[in-house]
C-alpha cells in the first residue's frame, strides 16, 4: 500500500481500537461485529464492500451454505472471510475446519477467521490439518501486539489488502514460509536419523574410510541441532556452561512450550532467529527455555532473550539504547519500563525481513556480552 493508503489504514485501526472496550463489554453478536469492525477495516484495506463484483456477501459454498465475505480480484474470489461474534476465541477446531474447507473446496487459496479484533489467515490448500494451515495472525488489540508500532500493525493487515492480493503477496509469503517449514522437517528427519544412502554419500565425499558410519551419524546430529536442555558433548565445549535453572528443570519448559499454537510464520521466524543466535558461537552459546521466554547465554553471560507471541517475537538485548545510531521504529528503550527478559533494548520482530535488519543489533549484544 502507498503512504496515503497506509495512513488511512492507521487511522481506521486507531478508530476501531477506541471502540474495543465499549463493545467487548456489550458482547456484540456476529452481524454487528461485521458492521462495526470488519466492514470498516475491509474498506480501509481497499475492498469495496458495496460492490458485489469486488466483495460478495454471503457467498454460496458448494455444500449449500455460505461464507460471510468473498473478496474478489477480476470478479474471481481470492479470499474468504468468516466472521464470528466479537468475544469469540477463534480456537474452535470445527469453525477453523469449516472456513478452511469452504476455501479449499471452492478453489480459493486464502481464508480468514475473525472476531472483528483478531484475524487468523490460513492457506487453505496446504497439506496439513486445518489449524496447522495458519500462516499468521494479527490483532487490533494493542495488548495482543504489545511492542509493535501501529505502523507495523498496519503493515501486517495490509498483507491482505486488495492491492496486496492482486500482487500475490500472500502467495509469496506463504510459499516461503510453508516450503521452508517442510524442508526443515525433512532435514530434521534426514540428519537425526540419516538413511544409509546419505551416510554412503558423505563417506564418498570425505574420501576418508577411517570415519565410520556411526561417527557420521553423531556428527550430523551435532551439526544440525542441539535440543533445548541438552548439552553438546564435553569434547566440543571450550568454556564452562551454565547449569539450567531449577525453574526450567522442574517445569520441563522447552521449545514446544513456546511454539505450541503459534502461526507457521512465527515458528519459522523463531527457528531462523534461534539458528542465528546459536551459530554466533556454536560451541559455547547455550539456550534455556523458561516459562515466559528463552534466554541465550555465552558462558554465564546473557546476551539475548526472546518471547514468542502469536504476532511475532519480542527480543531483549543487553545494550544501551543511547549508544545506538538512529534506531529503527521496531527498537525501543525499555530501561525504565517493566518487562520480561534481560536487557534494556527491545526489538519487535514480526517478519523475516525485519529480522534481517535486526541481526546487526543481536550481533552487537553478543559481542559486548560474550564471556572472555
TrEMBL record:
This is Type I restriction enzyme R protein N-terminal domain-containing protein. It comes from Petrotoga mexicana DSM 14811. GO terms for molecular function: ATP binding; DNA binding; type I site-specific deoxyribonuclease activity. It comes from the Bacteria. Residues 59-129 form the Restriction endonuclease type I HsdR N-terminal domain. Pfam families: DUF5655 (PF18899), HSDR_N (PF04313). Residues 256-367 form the DUF5655 domain. One of its GO terms (biological process) is DNA restriction-modification system. Gene3D superfamilies: 3.90.1570.30. InterPro entries: DUF5655 (IPR043714), Restrct_endonuc_type1_HsdR_N (IPR007409).
